[in-house]
Specification:
Blueprint (H helix, E strand, L loop, with lengths): L1 E8 L27 H7 L4 H4 L6 E2 L3 E5 L3 H10 L6 E5 L5 H12 L7 E6 L3 E2 L2 H16 L3 E6 L10 E7 L11 E7 L4 H10 L2 E11 H11 L1 H12 L2 E3 L2 E3 L2 H5 L6 H9 L4 H4 L4 E6 L3 E2 L4 H7 L8 E3 L2 E4 L5 E4 L4 E4 L4 E6 L2 E6 L7 H9 L11 E3 L2 E9 L2 E8 L7 E3 L3 E9 L2 E5 L2 E5 L4 E4 L5 E4 L6 E9 L8 E4 L24
Parallel strand pairs: 1-2, 1-3, 1-5, 3-4, 4-12, 7-13, 15-17, 16-18, 17-19
Antiparallel strand pairs: 5-10, 6-14, 7-10, 8-9, 8-10, 9-13, 11-12, 19-20, 21-22, 22-23, 23-30, 24-31, 25-28, 25-30, 26-27, 26-29
Helix pairs in contact: 4-7, 4-8, 4-10, 7-8
Length: 512
């Protein structure tokens, strides 16, 4: 029997804007330390089998379910850890967690297998990883027998931003590790303050962390019973999906017709109603988890978990503080000075600055709504745009010209491509570049440059062992990123983007 980790990485993390954005959400950010939240989730599994061995249960390589726009970001996270995923499952569009888990259950159940699924969000933090692994190991025994187990976080305060789980009777048989497990009586929506205080005082309620342990066949049976329309759409998306190297892609048309719903609403809440035993024969359980968990769901939550100075300030980057207390101050691009202020969140990035009362952390959604309403790119992308080969960042632009800084990772290459409306000048700042321009292939060292004419087939590669940095000066009638025709691409991206106009407004960066 396999224990199959399933990491759900479809969230956009908008409550942590401006660091987290649609095309680079919080699971790819190092918010809790050196590693990103996704990397921390992957590494949290280390030691599970050696610390808590279960006879006949082997830990499989993780499956990650993510938006197809993030596939290269996920692959890069594994590469940085020198690990390999069991699979990266791509959703053509977001449909919430129930369809995502259904696709993962089909994928994990190939070849007649029926593993235990360990379902985890990609963007949470756990401080006591030993306690976390102990709880997972205890839940496996119940899941192996066909039970559905969720981990309920022992609440530390009357939190109104989380859903809650109410426990029922304690299971008469203890877990293999002696931990108490309870029947799961019900899911509760986010409460108001007095209700949350009552939950805390009762001792019967836990925070809903979105952590589930159950067999793949059990999930498929439950989703078919409670939400047959989701089950049908996902089965078709699975049957008509395609494998492309590391990536498995759900069929776009089939998945587009799938209703959006969460694991909680689609299955877990109906499963905890009074007639659950009659309807499915399955039972749901909650195992308390006391492991320093946080969903890092708002700036106030990040302030709570980060190390602070003597005045209670969390400081990151180029920050000066004087007579200021209990603030979260992050600078990415320039000096931030905080004098005589208290309980503020100040987050500075190259293209946006957020200043907010820490107590109003949930209201950052008003900023996102404004940006989306106005069609502004700051809700979707950073100035630094990530690509599978590295990244690029605009430096300056004006009529008929644009300047960018390109960073190409060791061993990576841009596509073999051409542009109809612009020429490019490349200057090597550091590293070694291998350049293809029509039928010529040559090397450029630091401080050397070359010119790519309009219409010329060209490619930029990094054959070295350190990052290659290039200053690119574009000039021409149209400088949009959709003015590109690819002839060959290592990353299997489309060979032809939408046709670029001869003039007009520049498009969002999306090709390269």
């Amino acid at each position: 029997m396999q224990l199959q980790p399933v990491i759900l990485s479809g969230g956009s993390g908008t409550r942590l804007w401006p660091l987290s954005r649609e095309f680079y959400p919080k699971q790819f950010l190092p918010l809790g330390g050196h590693d990103t939240l996704l990397q921390a989730t992957l590494q949290r599994l280390d030691g599970l089998q050696t610390e808590h061995p279960h006879r006949g249960i082997a830990l499989a390589a993780p499956l990650v379910v993510c938006n197809e726009a993030h596939r290269f970001l996920v692959a890069e996270q594994f590469r940085s850890l020198r690990g390999q995923p069991g699979g990266i499952l791509l959703e053509p569009m977001g449909r919430n967690t129930a369809p995502a888990l259904t696709l993962a259950a089909h994928y994990a159940g190939q070849g007649g297998h029926d593993p235990i699924l360990l379902v985890m969000p990609a963007d949470h933090l756990v401080q006591d990883e030993v306690a976390f692994r102990r709880a997972i190991a205890c839940a496996c025994a119940k899941a192996l027998a066909g039970g559905v187990v969720t981990l309920g976080v022992v609440p530390q305060r009357p939190e109104t931003g989380y859903g809650y789980l109410e426990r029922g009777l304690e299971e008469p048989s203890s877990t293999p590790d002696g931990m108490a497990m309870f029947q799961l009586d019900r899911f509760v929506e986010k409460p108001d303050q007095p209700t949350a205080q009552g939950y805390l005082e009762s001792g019967r309620f836990y925070w809903n962390a979105g952590l589930f342990i159950l067999r793949a066949s059990v999930w498929l049976r439950l989703i078919t019973h409670f939400r047959p329309e989701i089950a049908r759409a996902c089965e078709r998306a699975w049957q008509e999906g395609t494998q492309e190297g590391l990536f498995w892609c759900a069929n776009r048309d089939a998945f587009a017709g799938c209703p959006a719903d969460s694991i909680d609403y689609a299955v877990m809440e109906p499963l905890t109603t009074a007639d659950r035993a009659v309807s499915t024969g399955d039972a749901a359980y909650v195992l308390p988890l006391d492991a320093g968990w946080s969903d890092v769901g708002a700036w106030s939550a990040l302030w709570e978990i980060r190390d602070k100075d003597a005045q209670g300030n969390v400081v990151e980057g180029d920050v000066f503080v004087h007579a200021a207390t209990d603030n979260l101050l992050i600078s990415q691009h320039r000096l931030v000075a905080a004098v005589g202020v208290r309980d503020l969140v100040v987050v500075e990035t190259p293209d946006a600055v957020l200043v907010m009362d820490k107590a109003q952390a949930q209201e950052v959604k008003a900023v996102i709504q404004y940006l989306q309403r106005e069609g502004r790119p700051e809700s979707r992308t950073h100035r630094c745009v990530h690509r599978p080969w590295g990244n690029f960042e605009p430096i300056d632009q004006g009529p008929r010209y644009q300047v960018k800084r390109l960073t190409v990772n060791p061993g990576e290459a841009l596509s073999l491509q051409m542009h109809h409306h612009r020429a490019e000048h490349w200057v090597v700042v550091s590293g070694t570049a291998q350049v293809t321009c029509e039928d010529r292939v040559f090397l450029l060292a630091e401080n050397q440059s070359t010119y790519i004419p309009i219409g010329a087939r060209h490619r930029l590669e990094n054959p070295g062992v350190i990052p290659l940095e290039i200053i690119e000066v574009q000039s021409g009638a149209y400088l949009g990123e959709d003015d590109i025709k690819r002839f060959h691409d290592h990353y299997q991206r489309p060979t032809q983007t939408a046709a670029a106009p001869a003039g007009g407004e520049q498009q969002d960066a999306k090709a390269k």
